């Protein structure tokens, strides 16, 4: 069976989008800083795609009958399109000591920074409580939070 024209439109549009979006678009090439740490850009990629078409009937019965006999089918009109959006999310920083952290670029960075500091804060609170129980009192003058 012959391929419908809309399949060709969709295939072409999807191949072009596939060429635009690859793993290097999402996770960028690493850059080495002078101190030996690696900085890797991270992005969010969104894409959309649409295709549509219609077959038009001929008003002339004789023309319609001859096209069916020749296997040409009805006249077709259609189109397709797509779009890609790339938004920077942040930078993944791999320190020379092996420490990994994410440095976000959006305006909600403070919340992300608090989430990064949560384990360290919990460790300090645990040591405060542990030392307070051992000494039967809590002395907060030696701890910085």
Shape: elongated
Kindly report the spatial arrangement of strands forming the biggest sheet. 1-2-3-4
> What portion of residues is helical?
25-40%
Helix/strand order = HHEEHEEH
Give the percentage of residues in beta strands: 25-35%
Low-confidence stretches: none
Mean pLDDT: 76
Number of strands: 4
Q: What number of structural domains do the residues give?
A: 2
Determine the N-to-C terminus distance. Answer: 72 Å
Model description:
The protein is α+β, with helices and mostly antiparallel strands. The protein has 2 domains: 5-105, no CATH class; 107-145. It has helices at residues 5-20, 23-26, 61-70, 109-135; strands spanning 31-32, 38-55, 76-94, 100-104. A 4-stranded antiparallel β-sheet has the order 1-2-3-4. The radius of gyration is 30 Å and the shape is elongated. It starts with a helix and ends in a 10-residue tail after the last helix. The mean pLDDT is 76.
Keywords:
145 residues, alpha+beta, four-stranded antiparallel beta sheet, 4 strands, 39% helix, elongated
Short structural description:
The chain is an alpha+beta fold and 145 residues long. Helices cover 39% and strands 30% of the residues.
Question: Mind sketching the topology for me?
Answer:
Elements: H1 5-20, H2 23-26, E1 31-32, E2 38-55, H3 61-70, E3 76-94, E4 100-104, H4 109-135
Antiparallel strand pairs: 1-2, 2-3, 3-4
